[in-house]
């Protein structure tokens, strides 16, 4: 979640005004997801909407800078510093094979059931059994292998 802006922080770089309304919309969606009732959900399912919104906001900023080249490096660095995007996730998206990665936790082998493996959502759909439901327990992803 972005830090609270105070009068002591540097003002945002030029170009922020153009994307501010979209980032404010993501902030509103994040607040709604945080205040949503978790009744009737499994314990792990409560965080899935928050993870999806965070991923979408990070992907938006990544696309603005790397794909469309619509924002400056200064604005991009400022957005990462202020917490508008996940810098670790964006760093992984730049590597081959991780272009569609849903969250950094899915590639950490220490959190998995089998030692040295990755999350089930990282397995290509071509290697899964037909009709098998794939759903990550960490973030709710239904498959983020780049080879799909």
TrEMBL record:
Subcellular location, record wording: Nucleus
Parts forming coiled coils: 16-43
Main subcellular localisation: nucleus
GO cellular component, one term: spliceosomal complex
Keyword field contains Translocase: no
InterPro entries: BUD31, BUD31/G10-rel_CS
Keywords: Coiled coil, Nucleus
Pfam family, one: BUD31
PROSITE patterns xrefs: G10_2 (PS00998)
Leader peptide range in chain numbering: none
Entry's Gene Ontology BP terms: mRNA splicing, via spliceosome
Stated family: Belongs to the BUD31 (G10) family.
Protein name according to UniProt: Bud site selection-related protein
